[in-house]
Amino acid sequence: MVIVIGSGAGGATVARELALKGAEVTLLERGPRPSDGHASRYYANVDAGVKILRTLCLGGTTLVSTGNAMRCLEEELRSLGIDLTREFAEAERDLGVRILPDSLYGPATRRLMEAAATIGTPMKKMPKFIDHGRCRLDGQCAFGCPTNARWSALWFVEEAEEHGCRTCCGTPAEEILVSSGQVRGVRSGSRHILDDEVVLAAGALETPRLLQGIDIPTAPLFIDTFVTIGGFCPAAGLHTEIPMNAYLHHDGTLVMPHYSRQLVDLLVERGWPATASDVLSMMVKIRDDDAGEVGDTISKAVTPRDAGTLSAGAAHAGAILVEAGADPRSLVAASLRGTHPGGTARIGVAVDTYLQTPVEGLYVADASVLPGAPGGPPILTIVALGKYVARRILE
Fold first, then answer.
1. Residue 295: is it exposed, middle or buried by C-beta count within 10 angstroms (0-12/13-18/19+)?
2. CA-based, 20 to 30 A from 2: which of 32, 257, 268, 305?
3. 329 membership: H or E segment, kind and range
C-alpha cells in the first residue's frame, strides 16, 4: 500500500498513476468532498502579509483554477537532472490541453489582444485544459466550473477510486511516523495509518510543517504575487469570459485579461457608475523573491524588487487598458494577492532528484519541491512531477 497525503494536482496524479498500475492506495484529504460545483465555498485563504489564495477540499485548488496549462520551470528542472519531457507530454494528453477555438474568445479579451498588439507587445493564446464543447462562457472558472468543462484533480481522484483507491476525506495528516530512518505511516488524530511508502502532497503551506516535525530541513516560501488593474469601460463584458485566455510576458511579469470583483467596489467608491459588466481589467503576476516563511505562522513579504517589478507591469497593463477603451481617469488596482505557493521543500534541500526525502520511502509531490517561483500557472508541471514520482515508486 502507498499512502498519499493531499488530493490536489500532485497527490491526485500520484494516486491515479499508482492505482492504474494495480497498487493499493490510500488517499488522505483534510477537507471535505465537494457536493456540487460551488468550489468557492472551500476557499481557505491565508493572510501572510500578502493574501495567499487556496482551497481545502478534495481536489484542492485545481477546482478554482482557470485551466491554464503552461510548462513552467521545465528547463530549470532539467538542469537539476529531472527531465520531464515524457511526463509533460502525458499530462497534456491526459488533461486535454489545447488552444481554445476563436468562438471562446470574448469581445473584451479580443480588444485587449488588439490593444496589446497596437502598442507593440502582442499577446499569445493561452493553452487550456477546458472542454470547449461544455463551456458556457459564464466566467465562473475561479469559483468552480458548474458544467465540469475544466479539468480538475477530482477527475483523477475519481479515476483512482474506480481502480481501488480508498479516499479518506476529513482526515488531516498530523504527523509522519518514522522509525530507524524509514517511514512507517501517518498519524491523524488518534488513528495510525501504517505503510512504508508515503507521498506527501499537502501543498507548500502544510508539507513543510509535516517535514519540520521529523527534522527534515525546509526552505523559504515563494508565491506568484499578483495585482489586478482595471478601469471603467461601459458594457465591456469581461466578467463572463474565460479568464486569462491570452497572455504576454513583459519585463519579468505575466500580463493576462482578468476580472476581479474588487474593482467594481473600488470604481463605485470613486464615483464611477460601474457594474460587473463595465470593468475592463488585467492581472499582472510576477516571479517573486522567496522571502516567505512557514512555521507556527506563515509570512510573505513584498521585497523592493517585487514592488518595482509589479509597478512596471501595472504601468504596461494600464497602457493596454487605455488603448482598449478603459477611461484613463478611472484606473484602479485591487489588493495584492498571491497564488501558487511553493519552494518550501525544494529539490536539493528537502528532497533529492527522485523527490525522496532523507527518510526512506517518504516522497514529496507538490509545489513544495519547485526550485523557484514559476511566474505562471504550475498545475501542468505539478501533474508531470506527480507522474514522475509515481514512476519512481513503481520502478
1. exposed
2. 32
3. none
What phi, psi does 4 have (nearest 5°)? Answer: -115, 125
SS (H, E, C) 161-192: HHCCCEEEECCCCCEEEEECCEEEEEEECCEE
Q: Which residue type, as a one-letter code, is found at position 117?
A: A
Task: State the distance between the two ends of the chain, measured CA to CA, in whole angstroms.
Answer: 15
**Which pTM was predicted?**
0.95
Determine the residue type at 374.
Answer: P
Nine-digit cell at 224? 506568484
Residue 157 CA: distances (Å) to CA of 2, 9, 52 = 15, 10, 25
Q: Is the pLDDT of residue 38 over 80?
A: no
In order of 133, 148, 258, the CA distances from 155 in angstroms are 17, 10, 26
For residue range 139-197, what is the model confidence (pLDDT) as tens digits? 888 788 888 899 999 999 999 999 999 999 999 999 999 999 999 999 999 999 999 99
The yes-or-no verdict on residue 281 having pLDDT over 80 is yes
